[in-house]
Each structure stands twice: as structure tokens, then as C-alpha cells.
């Protein structure tokens, strides 16, 4: 079990908010669940971000048969420095709200609001460049059973929240993203990924999805060198898997093939874009 991210006070984490509006979940306060906007938000002058109300679904599970050892960039991520780039401007407040209530029972009170934020806000923002269901549903569901993916997803979601908070002066989001919160989850993602690969050499799908999340996070931070490192690792995983599938078509199960088919176009698109910019992976 990994330690909790630093916040300077443990008393604020005693209440585990499982239901209620998204704003109250992020603030970790009890919601009165009034509709359409909760009274707690209205009385304090906050914007109520609504409720998650889709039926409960089971998290997706997957396995792989790729036995290659994947090298992961082990450098500590640098402090975020948001840049005004086309990629960052895509991360504007999303208008499409997608429910992630099915995630709550399986996640801790600390993680659940952030996985939901990713599903409802970050995923739709990123879906302009890739499949909406992949970002808003597939990745959040996989994060339930894969700690490495979960921490990487929370790191990206909270970095997006901080960018959005700065852009819109949203005090709720500013208060939610504590100092070093993004860095802590980024580091935890790398630690869990290393442990996952040491214990299971067939975990290349986990590494591939983490690479994608790391690429997205470093794009948001404007760290070109780390973007290229993670992109290169992801492309190496795809090439290795493709060679093994050619040699032995039955070496990968349907779930593993489906994941790679989903992410392969995006990795190749990123590779083409960086090559055109003079930074081939």
C-alpha cells in the first residue's frame, strides 16, 4: 500500500465522499444532493458541477502475453511549467459530462473524485484528438485494477485541473490540487509500473497506456525531452508486440490486441508530428 499524497493535514481526509455532486466530492465535504444544483454549493457561491448518475458497471480487466521487458524513463519529473501551445489549449473546460459513478465503490475516497474528474473533464477534452470512449471510459475503468495507470491518470487529471483553475480562476480546483500533488502521483505511477513489470513480464499493455498518459502530461507541462522519451518507449512496445504477433498470431489475447489497436494510431500520429517538427522519436 502506497502512502497518501502530502497535504499537511490528515484530518481533512477522514470524510470519504461517495455520493453527491462533483464539486463536493473534490472538496471532500458532505453534499445535500439537491437538484439541479446542491444547496451547499449555492449557499457558498460555488458552481455546482452536477451529479454522476449512470448505472454501476464492472471495471474492465485485461491481460497480455508479451514477455518483453519494457524500459521506463526513471527520471523524476520536473516541476510543471504550463505553456501556451495548441495541445494545452485543447484542455479547456469540457461541456460534455460523462458519468463515472461506477468507479466509486472500487476506489479510495482520495482517488475516486480525481478518476471521476478525469472521466468527466479531462477525457472529453482529450477526445478531440482521440476516441472519446477510450479517454473517458476505457482508461478510467482500467485504472481501477491497475495502480500504475490510476496514478498516471490522476497526475494528468490533476495537472489539467490546475491548468483549468488558473485559466478560469476556479478556487475549488485551485484548493483541490495541493502542492506537489501532481508530482507525487507521477512518481507513484512510475514506482508501481516498475513493480508491475518486475513481477509480470507480460504487462506491456500497462506500460503502453502509462506511456500515453505520461506523454500527455509532459505535453501539458511543455517538457519536450520527456515527451520524446515516453513516446519512444511507447513506439518500442508497439513494434515489439507487432513482431511477436507476426511470429505467433495466437500470442496475444483479444483484449491486448484491442488496446494496441486503440492506441497505435495516436502513437503514430504523435511520431509523425514530432518528426515534422524536427524531433523524430
TrEMBL record:
Keyword Transferase: no
Alphabetical UniProt keywords: DNA-binding, Metal-binding, Nucleus, Transcription, Transcription regulation, Zinc
A GO MF term: DNA-binding transcription factor activity, RNA polymerase II-specific
InterPro entries on file: Fun_TF (IPR021858), Transcr_Regulatory_Proteins (IPR052360), Zn2-C6_fun-type_DNA-bd_sf (IPR036864), Zn2Cys6_DnaBD (IPR001138)
Superkingdom: Eukaryota
One Pfam family matching this protein: Fungal_trans_2
Residue ranges of domain Zn(2)-C6 fungal-type in the record: 20-48
Designated name of the protein: Zn(2)-C6 fungal-type domain-containing protein
Amino acid at each position: 500500500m502506497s502512502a497518501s499524497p502530502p497535504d499537511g493535514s490528515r484530518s481533512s481526509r477522514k470524510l470519504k465522499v461517495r455520493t453527491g455532486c462533483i464539486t463536493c466530492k473534490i472538496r471532500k465535504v458532505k453534499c445535500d444532493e439537491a437538484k439541479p444544483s446542491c444547496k451547499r454549493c449555492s449557499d457558498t457561491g460555488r458552481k455546482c458541477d452536477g451529479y454522476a448518475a449512470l448505472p454501476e458497471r464492472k471495471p474492465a480487466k485485461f491481460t497480455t502475453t508479451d514477455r518483453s521487458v519494457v524500459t521506463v524513463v526513471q527520471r523524476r519529473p520536473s516541476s510543471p511549467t504550463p505553456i501556451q501551445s495548441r495541445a494545452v489549449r485543447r484542455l479547456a473546460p469540457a461541456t460534455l459530462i460523462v458519468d463515472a459513478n461506477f468507479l466509486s465503490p472500487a476506489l479510495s475516497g482520495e482517488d475516486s473524485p480525481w478518476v471521476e474528474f478525469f472521466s468527466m473533464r479531462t477525457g472529453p477534452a482529450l477526445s478531440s484528438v482521440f476516441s472519446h470512449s477510450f479517454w473517458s471510459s476505457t482508461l478510467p475503468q482500467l485504472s481501477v485494477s491497475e495502480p500504475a495507470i490510476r496514478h498516471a491518470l490522476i497526475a494528468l487529471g490533476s495537472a489539467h485541473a490546475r491548468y483549468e483553475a488558473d485559466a478560469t480562476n476556479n478556487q475549488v480546483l485551485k484548493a483541490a490540487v495541493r502542492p506537489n500533488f501532481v508530482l507525487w502521483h507521477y512518481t507513484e505511477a512510475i514506482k508501481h509500473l516498475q513493480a508491475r513489470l518486475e513481477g509480470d513480464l507480460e504487462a506491456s499493455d500497462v506500460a503502453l497506456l502509462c506511456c500515453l498518459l505520461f506523454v500527455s502530461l509532459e505535453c501539458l507541462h511543455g517538457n519536450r525531452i520527456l515527451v520524446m522519451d515516453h513516446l519512444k518507449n511507447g513506439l518500442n512496445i508497439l513494434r515489439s508486440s507487432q513482431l511477436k504477433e507476426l511470429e505467433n498470431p495466437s500470442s496475444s489475447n483479444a483484449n491486448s490486441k484491442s488496446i494496441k489497436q486503440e492506441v497505435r494510431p495516436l502513437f503514430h500520429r504523435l511520431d509523425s508530428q514530432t518528426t515534422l517538427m524536427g524531433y523524430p522519436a
